[in-house]
Amino acid sequence: MFEMRQKVLFKHCDPAGIVFYPRYFEMMNDCVEAFFDAALGVPFEDLHGTGAVPTAQIETRFTAPSRHGDKLVLRLSILSVGRSSAAYRMIASCAEQRRFETTATLVHVNSDGKPTPWPDGLGAKLRDFKDKSQ
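^ that's the sequence the OP posted. Answer follows.
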Protein backbone atom coordinates (compact mmCIF):
# COMPACT_ATOMS: atom_id res chain seq x y z
CA MET A 1 0.00 0.00 0.00
CA PHE A 2 1.28 3.45 -0.89
CA GLU A 3 0.67 6.34 1.51
CA MET A 4 0.74 10.07 0.92
CA ARG A 5 0.14 12.72 3.53
CA GLN A 6 -1.80 15.87 2.62
CA LYS A 7 -2.52 18.78 4.91
CA VAL A 8 -5.79 20.49 4.01
CA LEU A 9 -4.82 23.98 2.89
CA PHE A 10 -6.85 27.16 2.55
CA LYS A 11 -6.91 26.67 -1.24
CA HIS A 12 -8.75 23.36 -0.79
CA CYS A 13 -11.64 24.89 1.17
CA ASP A 14 -14.91 26.59 0.34
CA PRO A 15 -16.23 29.62 2.28
CA ALA A 16 -17.63 27.27 4.95
CA GLY A 17 -14.07 26.08 5.66
CA ILE A 18 -14.52 22.51 4.42
CA VAL A 19 -12.87 20.83 1.46
CA PHE A 20 -14.66 21.71 -1.77
CA TYR A 21 -15.17 18.24 -3.30
CA PRO A 22 -13.37 18.89 -6.64
CA ARG A 23 -10.21 19.58 -4.61
CA TYR A 24 -10.35 15.98 -3.38
CA PHE A 25 -10.00 14.86 -7.00
CA GLU A 26 -6.87 17.00 -7.30
CA MET A 27 -5.53 15.31 -4.15
CA MET A 28 -6.33 11.90 -5.64
CA ASN A 29 -4.41 12.75 -8.79
CA ASP A 30 -1.50 14.10 -6.71
CA CYS A 31 -1.42 10.77 -4.86
CA VAL A 32 -1.44 8.78 -8.11
CA GLU A 33 1.37 10.94 -9.50
CA ALA A 34 3.40 10.52 -6.29
CA PHE A 35 2.75 6.75 -6.41
CA PHE A 36 4.13 6.44 -9.94
CA ASP A 37 7.22 8.46 -8.95
CA ALA A 38 8.01 7.13 -5.46
CA ALA A 39 6.67 3.55 -5.55
CA LEU A 40 7.20 2.64 -9.21
CA GLY A 41 10.16 4.88 -10.09
CA VAL A 42 8.36 6.26 -13.15
CA PRO A 43 7.69 10.00 -12.78
CA PHE A 44 4.75 11.33 -14.76
CA GLU A 45 7.02 13.85 -16.50
CA ASP A 46 8.89 10.91 -18.06
CA LEU A 47 5.82 8.77 -18.73
CA HIS A 48 3.89 11.65 -20.24
CA GLY A 49 6.66 12.37 -22.75
CA THR A 50 5.17 9.80 -25.13
CA GLY A 51 1.62 9.42 -23.87
CA ALA A 52 -0.42 9.79 -20.70
CA VAL A 53 -2.26 7.94 -17.94
CA PRO A 54 -5.74 9.46 -17.75
CA THR A 55 -8.48 8.31 -15.41
CA ALA A 56 -11.08 6.44 -17.47
CA GLN A 57 -13.50 5.68 -14.62
CA ILE A 58 -13.86 6.88 -11.04
CA GLU A 59 -16.37 6.27 -8.27
CA THR A 60 -16.07 8.11 -4.98
CA ARG A 61 -17.96 8.09 -1.70
CA PHE A 62 -17.46 11.07 0.61
CA THR A 63 -18.08 9.96 4.19
CA ALA A 64 -17.11 12.95 6.33
CA PRO A 65 -15.99 16.54 5.72
CA SER A 66 -12.39 17.67 6.00
CA ARG A 67 -11.53 21.11 7.33
CA HIS A 68 -8.72 23.58 6.88
CA GLY A 69 -5.68 22.26 8.77
CA ASP A 70 -6.73 18.60 8.85
CA LYS A 71 -3.92 16.18 8.14
CA LEU A 72 -5.11 13.52 5.71
CA VAL A 73 -3.46 10.21 4.91
CA LEU A 74 -4.27 8.92 1.43
CA ARG A 75 -3.68 5.18 1.00
CA LEU A 76 -3.54 3.72 -2.51
CA SER A 77 -3.64 0.03 -3.37
CA ILE A 78 -3.70 -1.59 -6.80
CA LEU A 79 -6.71 -3.84 -7.39
CA SER A 80 -5.97 -5.17 -10.89
CA VAL A 81 -3.63 -4.64 -13.81
CA GLY A 82 -4.46 -5.23 -17.45
CA ARG A 83 -2.57 -4.85 -20.71
CA SER A 84 -3.05 -1.06 -20.75
CA SER A 85 -5.09 -0.35 -17.62
CA ALA A 86 -4.88 -0.53 -13.84
CA ALA A 87 -7.59 -0.23 -11.21
CA TYR A 88 -6.89 1.19 -7.78
CA ARG A 89 -8.62 1.91 -4.48
CA MET A 90 -7.77 4.94 -2.43
CA ILE A 91 -8.94 5.67 1.08
CA ALA A 92 -8.35 9.01 2.79
CA SER A 93 -8.57 9.38 6.53
CA CYS A 94 -7.79 11.87 9.25
CA ALA A 95 -7.01 10.52 12.71
CA GLU A 96 -8.45 7.17 11.56
CA GLN A 97 -11.77 8.74 10.52
CA ARG A 98 -12.52 7.93 6.88
CA ARG A 99 -13.10 11.01 4.74
CA PHE A 100 -13.50 9.39 1.32
CA GLU A 101 -13.04 6.15 -0.54
CA THR A 102 -12.59 5.94 -4.27
CA THR A 103 -11.99 3.31 -6.90
CA ALA A 104 -10.71 4.28 -10.31
CA THR A 105 -9.28 2.90 -13.52
CA LEU A 106 -6.23 4.40 -15.19
CA VAL A 107 -5.47 3.73 -18.84
CA HIS A 108 -2.09 4.13 -20.49
CA VAL A 109 -2.57 5.91 -23.82
CA ASN A 110 -0.20 6.88 -26.61
CA SER A 111 0.26 10.41 -27.95
CA ASP A 112 -2.90 9.96 -30.08
CA GLY A 113 -4.96 9.12 -26.98
CA LYS A 114 -5.38 5.45 -27.92
CA PRO A 115 -4.96 2.75 -25.24
CA THR A 116 -1.54 1.15 -25.54
CA PRO A 117 0.31 -1.48 -23.46
CA TRP A 118 2.19 -0.35 -20.38
CA PRO A 119 5.77 0.54 -21.43
CA ASP A 120 8.97 -1.37 -20.61
CA GLY A 121 8.21 -3.24 -17.43
CA LEU A 122 5.74 -0.75 -15.94
CA GLY A 123 2.94 -3.32 -16.10
CA ALA A 124 5.17 -5.76 -14.19
CA LYS A 125 5.94 -3.11 -11.55
CA LEU A 126 2.22 -2.47 -11.11
CA ARG A 127 1.56 -6.21 -10.78
CA ASP A 128 4.40 -6.58 -8.26
CA PHE A 129 3.00 -3.72 -6.21
CA LYS A 130 -0.46 -5.30 -6.32
CA ASP A 131 0.90 -8.63 -5.12
CA LYS A 132 2.94 -7.04 -2.29
CA SER A 133 0.06 -4.93 -0.99
CA GLN A 134 -2.49 -7.74 -0.70
